[in-house]
Design a protein that fits this description.
Belongs to the peptidase M28 family. M28B subfamily. Helices cover 39% and strands 15% of the residues. With 756 residues, the protein is α/β, with parallel strands linked by helices.
């Protein structure tokens, strides 16, 4: 599901550096959060046995088998893969079931794109099979190139090029006197999640939207195209969902509740998360004649792509006809749930998940992550046979329907919401992965815990810890802030979670601590969501030896084993406090910078400086005047952050001075720890999207996958809704205070009992 551009994660996700650590049980083990010295020694010995069980041949064989046919939602091979995995889990000793939800999954019935002026052209809308790719010719089973949850439509209009189609691009068009009302827009992939493009286009009055992959970003501008090289060929196109997931993910017909067989459903024509205009993805081969036929002003330099044409904006004289019709069917999605019951705290669940559905054959996305999860489960099953038992319940999940909009995981979470909030300790997610550098994002209460995991895993290319290698990357390639953190901060920051994979319902709707982990940055490719995401492509360009699939299994296996085995759950709150304080500083600086820029622009407008520098032979209007930025009252947030720092310090001190707790107090403490994240939820949710309840992390309303931290405050400021910003400061502060109170309760339980 997620964007396959690891540079974003590699500059945002920072992990602890530590000296290289051989994967054998050390004589003097490094400390582990949640373990005393003796338990840490036993844990390291267990992890050595776990590592010894991992086999790359299994990873390769399972990927080849599961990627042998297309396995989208509703496909025969999708169901076959679910049954296959369920059989594996059962053979390894897990209690296994397949839970079924019934979700809306539209597929194309008719796709037509043609240019009717100034010259006729009909788009092929077909990816070319390649002799060098064994599965690319399975045309009878492949979904055609389309954007899932586009509405039906039959529209004809002049074409306008809108760059990436994000709000700031329309501001540039308005300055050039170009209005897209009543037009069809063509946008490049990139710059935001794809679903934002038709959303903003419709808000601006467009009646249709085309999205293409420009070769500068995703094609021969990056390197040789497939099959000679890894990158997107001329006919390649990116399928994908355009469901308005920043409003809510999951089945659009059952908002906020599970899509069981007999659930009450909305009429799909009234579902709020479907697009308001028809939208279609096309290849750069199909896009070139359309773009070449545009006239009007030249696009700004930064907008121009890699096609051998001048990039004009339009509108026209290119006029296009777009006609789309879909089969609006409900389909079953098959979530595989495999459980190993805990011996001491069976009511505490550690969840580990990855999705198994794909747009086509899906070797990289999602199977590179799915086979790692399977191998973790198999290796842990082997440990179980030796007599080892987890203290807590371990649950492996293979989700269906992630690609169209987190359908399987969201509906399962909504169906089981109360039980999950009561029992789940943490949710650990992966998706696709490849050669390269560690990236990790998640709840910052797990930051120190995950730093210790990364400290103890070895990078297969460099023979150093995956954290050391990541630190080196940030020191060389990070922005100044990332470089400073990598040099100075003992625990480097993990990134915050936006959207784009199956963690979203667990953290952002239910308040369950979550992580999303993978590797990337060296596995080249333009295969994303195309017929070329195949076993052949993966084994040539992504991770030929499956070394990083194995390292992903080592990393996530350690995380799962430490969570299920810890004497006390390894949550830590000082890093969280530090991170949220950083977010507070950022939103204040954002407000100050906006005020400065607004005042500067107002002065330039009053002095008519924009008119003075405008070329009289071109249209470039002055920017619109903006309302002055008021001074907001951040005192409630500042006071809440101070209480958070105090409670975090109190808990750290309590754990440091008292390492001996009875089992009853451990159980009480654990529950306070893993349910603390739920205190960050707001019953009202975020403005205009109440499904998203977390007050610290959410996907951006106009970024999609990209995270907004302190989202209620930040987006109100960005959208210049000052009364709303004041209200969101109070609401966020209240959530932080509730969280701080929970941490204080945990500190009291963890502290030494008072003397009698």
């Amino acid at each position: 599901m997620k964007l396959k551009r690891y540079a974003y994660f590699l500059t945002a996700s920072l992990l602890l550096s530590a000296p290289a650590f051989a994967q054998t049980a050390p004589a003097e083990p490094k400390p582990l959060l949640g373990f005393d010295a003796a338990a840490a020694t036993a844990q390291y010995q267990l992890e050595t046995k776990f590592d010894a069980q991992l086999k790359t041949d299994n990873l390769r064989d399972w990927m080849k088998r599961m990627a042998s046919r297309p396995h989208h939602v509703g496909s025969p091979h999708g169901k076959d893969n679910a049954d296959f995995m369920a059989g594996l889990f059962k053979s390894w000793g897990y209690e296994t079931r397949i839970d079924v939800s019934y979700v809306l999954f539209p597929t194309p019935k008719l796709r037509l794109l043609e240019m009717v002026a100034p010259t006729p052209f009909k788009a092929g809308l077909t990816e070319k099979p390649l002799a060098e790719d064994a599965t690319s010719g399975q045309t009878a089973e492949q979904l055609p190139t389309y954007n899932c949850f586009s509405k039906d439509g039959d529209v004809t209009a002049e074409l306008v090029f809108v760059n990436y189609g994000v709000p700031r691009d329309y501001e540039e068009l308005e300055r050039r006197g170009i209005d897209v009302k009543g037009k069809i827009v063509i946008a490049k992939y990139g710059g935001s999640w794809r679903g934002i493009k038709p959303k903003v286009a419709a808000e601006k009055g467009a009646i249709g939207c085309l999205i293409y992959s420009d070769p500068k970003d995703d094609g021969y501008g990056q390197g040789d195209v497939y099959p000679k090289g890894a990158f997107k060929p001329e006919t390649g196109a990116q399928r994908g969902s355009v469901l308005d997931m920043p409003t809510y993910p999951g089945d659009p017909l059952t908002p906020g509740y599970g899509s069981t067989k007999n659930a009450k459903r909305l009429d799909y024509k009234k579902a709020p998360t479907l697009t308001q205009i028809p939208v279609l993805p096309i290849s750069y081969g199909d896009a070139q004649p359309l773009l070449a036929a545009l006239a009007g002003p030249m696009a700004p330099d930064a907008w121009r792509g890699g096609l051998p044409i001048p990039y004009h904006l339009g509108p026209g004289p290119a006029k296009v006809h777009l006609k789309l019709e879909f089969n609006w069917k409900n389909e079953p999605v098959y979530n595989v749930i495999a459980t190993m019951k805990g011996s001491l705290y069976p009511e505490q669940w550690v969840m580990r998940g990855n999705h198994h559905d794909a747009w086509v054959n899906g070797a990289s996305d999602p199977l590179s992550g799915m086979v790692a999860e399977l191998e973790e489960a198999r290796a842990i099953g082997e440990l179980y046979k030796t007599g080892w038992r987890p203290k807590r319940t371990l649950m492996f999940c293979a989700w269906d329907g992630e690609e169209p909009g987190l359908l399987g995981s969201t509906e399962w979470a909504e169906t089981n919401a109360k039980q999950l909030q009561k029992n789940v300790v943490a949710y650990l997610n992966t998706d696709n992965s490849e050669r390269g550098f560690l990236f990790a994002a998640g709840s910052h209460t797990l930051e120190k815990f995950f730093n210790q995991v990364g400290r103890d895993v070895i990078d297969p290319e460099k023979n150093m810890s995956i954290n050391d290698r990541r630190r080196a990357f940030d020191l060389i390639n990070g922005n100044p802030e990332a470089q400073k953190d990598a040099r100075d901060r003992a625990d480097l920051r993990i990134a915050a979670l936006g959207a784009g994979s199956d963690y979203s319902p667990y953290i952002q709707h239910l308040g369950i601590p979550s992580m999303n982990v993978g590797f990337g940055g060296e596995g080249e490719g333009g295969e994303y969501h195309s017929i070329y995401d195949s076993f052949d492509h993966f084994t040539r360009f992504k991770d030929p030896n499956f070394a990083y699939c194995k390292v992903l299994a080592q990393t996530m296996g350690r995380a799962s084993l430490r969570l299920v085995n810890a004497d006390v759950l390894p949550f830590e709150f000082q890093n969280f406090s530090n991170t949220v304080a950083k977010y507070g500083t950022e939103v204040k600086l954002l407000t100050d910078n906006m005020r400065t820029e607004t005042d500067k622009q107002a002065k330039l407008l009053a002095e008519k400086r924009y008119e003075a520098v405008a070329d009289p032979t071109e249209t470039l209007l002055p920017p619109k005047a903006r309302e002055a930025v008021p001074y907001l009252n951040f005192a409630p947030l500042d006071n809440a952050l101070l209480k958070l720092e105090q409670s975090a310090n109190a808990y750290a001190q309590a754990r440091k001075t008292n390492t001996s707790l009875s089992n009853d107090r451990k159980k009480e403490l654990d529950q306070l720890l893993y349910q603390a994240e739920q205190q960050l939820l707001s019953a009202e949710g975020l403005p205009r999207r109440p499904w998203y309840r977390h007050q610290i992390y959410a996907p951006g309303f106009y970024t999609g996958y990209g995270v907004k931290t302190l989202p209620g405050i930040r987006e109100a400021v960005e959208e210049r809704k000052w009364a709303e910003a004041d209200e969101q400061i109070k609401r966020t502060a209240a959530a932080v205070e509730r969280f701080s109170a929970q941490v204080s309760r945990a500190a009291a339980v963890a502290a030494p009992a008072p003397a009698q």
